[in-house]
Amino acid sequence: MRKVVGLAAIASVLAFAAPATAQEKIKIGVSYPTPTHAWAAGMNWHAEVAEKRLEALYPDVDLILVNSPDPSAQASALEDLVAVHQIDALVVLPFESEPLTDPVLNVKKSGAWITVVDRGLSQPGIEDLYVAGNNPELGRVSAKYMKGRLKDGDNIVILRGIPTVIDNERFDAFMEEIKGSGINVLDHKHANWNRDDGFQVMQDFLSRFPDIDAVWAQDDDIAIGVVAALKQAGRDGNGMFVVGGAGMKQIIKGIMDGDDLIPIDVLYPPSMIATAMDATVAHFKSNGPIAGRYILGATLITPENAESYYFAESPF
Amino acid sequence: MRKVVGLAAIASVLAFAAPATAQEKIKIGVSYPTPTHAWAAGMNWHAEVAEKRLEALYPDVDLILVNSPDPSAQASALEDLVAVHQIDALVVLPFESEPLTDPVLNVKKSGAWITVVDRGLSQPGIEDLYVAGNNPELGRVSAKYMKGRLKDGDNIVILRGIPTVIDNERFDAFMEEIKGSGINVLDHKHANWNRDDGFQVMQDFLSRFPDIDAVWAQDDDIAIGVVAALKQAGRDGNGMFVVGGAGMKQIIKGIMDGDDLIPIDVLYPPSMIATAMDATVAHFKSNGPIAGRYILGATLITPENAESYYFAESPF
């Protein structure tokens, strides 16, 4: 099975082809962790929507979605996708980088096209296409918004994620961008992309700092915890605002409704799995090249564009 | 006109919708230089193939292709796409960066989505999506192939392109990659991505260096000039090989036929315009995010995969 070539193949696309038999189908495996938290549940939902959409558009494309509860289950799932389904391509969001590198390499060796999403493998060059969010840009976009809202001498606190490369990239880019603005960072602490940790860290900040003008929470789950702490302490007025990140449904809805406390969001969306599925199908259907690195922007979500990023049926 | 949202929109995609009236159509302008040389002619051909393919797939999408002979004509064409066609999105390969930056910014201000291809604008942040080749990787991939074929003490010559950032990126990455391999670079000279210059520069190299094992020509047009010079001098035997770059039809055909002199190629294809058109249509049709930077890989084309990159009807 290879990429469409020349005009003959284009013509068959134009004619929408005859219904393909099972054996003629382009089989694409889509493997990701079992949705045990909200972001992952959103990813699962978006993968299912993309599956329906792409299979309706291309009758000869068969997308096979599999989710796995741990790295070794995901490794087994990849083996099955090759042995049982004989996939022509794989879209994979690895549970962890290290234990999935060899299993994905084995899929590659079977001749399948490989698209890796969000988390890279431990060895470079295995994937044909890499689709991911942009962590430094998430930090920069957040800092630019802060600079636009705050003035010289204003105070902020920062709640960070789990100590990881991702968290460092976001934090370092944020700090670099606000340099020279006169905005004071009173403190920064890890809240582990977690709602409860966000609540507790923010309670601590509120008890220690009487004058906080804004909060960078970096993540929508943390932001929800922060808002709860602000409201409990009665510190949610006077122009106070919180910047999260991801694109959670409740946050987007709040932006659409003109919420003052979380007025914007910065995109790092689980729907990137759909982008990866689109591009992988395009490898078989488009006359354009697909291999490379597709790094999604950390789009600023405002009341003007929020509706485009709101998926009412999604769990996230 | 905005991105599809939620299940209602997905459902209409699944049903392939009713034929859209002219006013309901999603209008996407595609603007690029008039095809006056082979690479640009290839781009024009691929844009037309993508237009037919995408309009057949999506009856409510109208792609409007316009090519322009110079920067000011392209600026006027962009004005018309907004004023006459009221486009919802623009795919643009700017003739030159500086004179097209303000015209593209004006299209952006009309509310249209902007996808920039290959050549960046002078001001960052105007485009929603940037689609381009990978010049450093083109140099690295070429050098890795050289290292695989040559041994310590072997001699090569390098023909460079037009003195530009693109040429420097390719050359610097190549030199960095062969460092420590023991391969000697006898000389490097600019051949301006031109067949005749390639012939002349190679004639000079052949007269000065009696022992050349391989040639990095960086570009398929230069490579064709190099091969002519090698054959005229009777220096095309003894394992001599030439590495070009781009993905020209004649070169790909040679690779498919097992040519010894140009055994591989490195992709920097004009068909990237089709990738940009696919992604721009996906902005209106997919549940996945599209904004960001899509940097295409410099894929190594070998006898094994050459057929996938061969477009018999393309002028390039």
Provide a brief overview of the structure.
The structure is a homodimer of 316-residue chains. By secondary structure, chain A is an alpha/beta fold. The first copy, chain A, has helices spanning 6-14, 38-57, 71-83, 97-109, 135-149, 165-178, 195-208, 220-232, 249-256, 272-285, and strands spanning 26-33, 61-68, 89-92, 113-117, 129-132, 155-160, 184-190, 214-216, 241-243, 265-266, 292-296, 300-301.
Topology:
The structure is a homodimer of 316-residue chains.
Chain A: H1 6-14, E1 26-33, H2 38-57, E2 61-68, H3 71-83, E3 89-92, H4 97-109, E4 113-117, E5 129-132, H5 135-149, E6 155-160, H6 165-178, E7 184-190, H7 195-208, E8 214-216, H8 220-232, E9 241-243, H9 249-256, E10 265-266, H10 272-285, E11 292-296, E12 300-301
Parallel strand pairs in A: 1-2, 1-3, 3-4, 4-5, 5-11, 6-7, 6-8, 8-9
Antiparallel strand pairs in A: 10-12
Helix pairs in contact in A: 2-10, 3-4, 5-6, 7-8
Provide an overview of this structure.
The structure is a homodimer of 316-residue chains. Chain A is built from 10 helices and 12 strands. The first copy, chain A, is α/β, with parallel strands linked by helices and 316 residues long. In chain A, the strands form 3 sheets. The first copy, chain A, has a 6-stranded parallel sheet with strand order 2-1-3-4-5-11, with helices on both faces. A 4-stranded parallel sheet of chain A has the order 7-6-8-9, sandwiched between helices. A two-stranded antiparallel ribbon of chain A has the order 10-12. Chain A is elongated and about 65 Å long. Mean pLDDT of chain A is 92; it is low at 1-20. At the A-B interface, helix 1, helix 2, helix 10 and strand 11 of A face helix 1, helix 2, helix 10 and strand 11 of B. Strand 11 of chain A pairs antiparallel with strand 11 of chain B.
